[in-house]
Amino acid sequence: MYNDSTVCHPLLLSQGNKSEKGLCDDTTSAVVISAIILFIHTCLLLVSVGGLVYKLRMLHILQKEHKQVVNYLQVARNPALMVMGAIIGWTYTFVLMTRVLIGRKIYPCFIFSLIYYLAVPALSNTVILRCIRLLVLTKLNELKVRIGKRQYDLHATTSSENMKPLMDANVSLDILETLNNTPPSANNPLTTDTEMKELKVHSETSSVSSSSGLLKATNRTSLSALTVGRTSSIMSQFTIEPKDITTDKPLEDEMIFRKETLLESFERGKLISIMRFLVSSKFIFIYYGLLLALHILIFLIIGTIDYFNFQNTGGASSNSRNSFTIDSYLFSPSGCGTGSYNQNIFISYFAFYGFIGVLLLLFSFFTKRDVWHIKIEVIVVIFGWVFFIVLYAVPSLFTIFTTYIDYYFPWTITILIGNMWDTLISFTYPVFFLQRFKSDKKQHTESTPSVDSKLQHSKPSESSIRKILLNEKWNNLFLKFSEKCFACEDVMMWNAIEKFKTIKSEKQRRELFYNICNTYIRIGAPLELNISRKDFGIPEIEKIFKSLKDSTINFASKNGNVSPSPKLNISPKQTSTNPQDMSFLFAITPEIFDRIQTACEHNMLDNYTRFQASYEKQLEKELSILPKMKV
Predict the structure, then answer these.
(1) Which residues, 6 or more positions from 52, have their beta carbon under 8 angstroms from its beta carbon?
(2) What pTM did the predictor assign?
(3) Strand partners, 200
(4) pLDDT digits over 249-294, tens only?
(5) Residue 550, H or E segment
(6) Which CATH number fits domain 20-144+274-438: 1.20.1070, 2.30.110, 1.10.1200, 2.30.30?
């Protein structure tokens, strides 16, 4: 029992070491090396977490000051995943090294045995989650681009001349009350939010039959533009024209919208919500929680069976390896050696999760190369793990390593070095080498204007970003580059606004206005913009969007035919008592999104600096854009 050469090498036995519970005594060198490894890994973890907290705080401060800085830690990476992966790797190191420091023969078996049930699932799934995040982010941005381009699918105008712009629509304003009980005039602009509430959007009241059409519109006069708001109101973008409700316009002039297919509706609704959830911190915590709960449950079940088996058999035979532990049981408070059953479970977990990891790695190879270095990071970390696993597994097949060298130099340290490699590449490197402030702080302060100064931008043609966006070739390249940055929303919105400005048909302009608000501006939109809502007049735009949605939106019926918009609830009494009531047509002018377009340009600056660095010579040659900002 105390001189088993299959456990302790004869050279160790000759030095007075004894074998017990399938274990031998550790040498002084093993204790010293274990202490050094644990110290290094602990320092690496503390420095990395401390650096992450500091950099995230600095990012928050700079963003509040409207200073443009490239965010390597939160756009493509998830701080929660970074911290969880590093802590799991350090925990593995802590258990194995303290086991050597305390003594393998006395270290609690129930703690050590958890390594065989949790180490592979926890460590491998950290890498798996990174692969999943990379794949989902890539597909999510492809989906965003697809949704963004789909908004241009406007319903064609239906007048007798199909290409003739239709400047009429049946969106009307019923003015219920006005300031001082006086009707609005062309010379009295509305100037307060209270006055804005006095306007309600309505559509015409009378239903239309096939036998009796509406009379032709007559006597149209133009009213001045509405001016609503304290500083620069969005309602100043609208003009009101009176329209006689007793018109004879055909139904083809009604406001109509294209019906989304089931697939399109699923993509912009549930699918994009699922993808956002898969890259969120909530998913990471739920995933780790379920994973650890499952494997702890497996450990408890197997440990319970092993305990009763150990009690019923009166203890395992001397150094028997056909068990979970040697001369002990999984829940033992004292030390234990590892039996073949534990090793088989460890290998099974490794094969299962390793197969998933390799499969996801193959998919990751075919993803677009991102500018955040996530793809390179995942590939480097995985190949590093493969190297260290092979370095550990192959020598462990020889008894000289398990019975002799392991007690001088704990061979599991090769796996622990893999842990530190993982933390260094996926955590420390992004925090300290990618996310920097000092070299860019002064430059960004001088070259990146604040939000207010951007709004006062005088000549759009002088903007380098505008030069790129107004060029079809470079616009497409910049959009693809923004996809790789996982931040395509601002470019898509900018292009949508440019399209909006070129539309002459009032019907199509309203439809694109609705599509833009529904895609980019409303809270929870699939491509919701990350801009200050109050600073850029979004609340006022949302009021118009809500009014348009409530009063004129009626998607196609289930058979796929396009139907006219419904009428608003104006009481028959009001119609009969005041048959000459005028409904008002508001025209959405092309300049309504100008401030938001400027905000999009401001948000593109960090992408633009990297884009310019990538195409510096071509941009200088084709667009005369000189290199100004470096990343």
Answers:
(1) 73, 79, 82, 83, 427, 431
(2) 0.72
(3) 174
(4) 443 344 445 677 888 889 888 999 999 999 999 999 999 999 999 9
(5) helix 538-552
(6) 1.20.1070
